[in-house]
Amino acid sequence: MRVATAAFISGLLTVASAHFQLQYPPPRGVFVEDKEPTFCDGYATAVSNRTVFPTNGGIVSLHSEHVHWTLGGIIATVQNPTSFDNFSSGGQFQFVMPFFQTSGEGDFCFPVDFGAQNVTGVKNGANVTLQLIYDGGDGQLYQCADLTLSDSASVPQSVSCTNSTNAATTPFSTSVNPDPTSTSPSGTSSSTSTATSTTNAAPMNVAVGFSGLAGIVGAIVALL
């Protein structure tokens, strides 16, 4: 009984600490699990060897460790974005991937069309940074990719575009309020801006949060 219960608790804690890994375009740095809840996975400086990325007709691929999750993408057009403020204009985040919800664990791939989003500065030859905002129900996670946009670029043939499930994606409206501790490690700024996608849809059905999980674990431990 105790062994089975311990295994169950371990499984719950694994779910609560699940993450995601950006695969393409390549992220700013090697994935750091403990830093993913912070701005750009803890990497505050843009890389010098940017990925040449299609202005139109690109893809984003990632590996998800959550069963149900949401994803959105914001873009910065400054040379070296170091805080969430650099991804906003007029107090609103600059979305190039409006938020959507889907389900499934494993590898996923989504089309992106930066040029169609009418963000000032998104054009051929521009150095930009894409920041993905991922939420599996236990908090927002962030990863960044530094890119140089090109009208003539295409996705390399070596990059696979596969989906682990056939689950539908559901766009929805949501607000993003980055935690002040999620800004650059140097503490250059903190953002209180709120950005909302223009799509009207039902609110996100989130998974059990960590506080709820702690209550469940506490109740189970009391039964031991």
TrEMBL record:
Residues 1-18 form the signal peptide. Residues 17-165 form the Copper acquisition factor BIM1-like domain. The chain crosses the membrane at residues 202-223. It is a lipid-anchor; GPI-anchor. The keyword Transport does not apply. GO terms for cellular component: plasma membrane; side of membrane. This is Copper acquisition factor BIM1-like domain-containing protein.
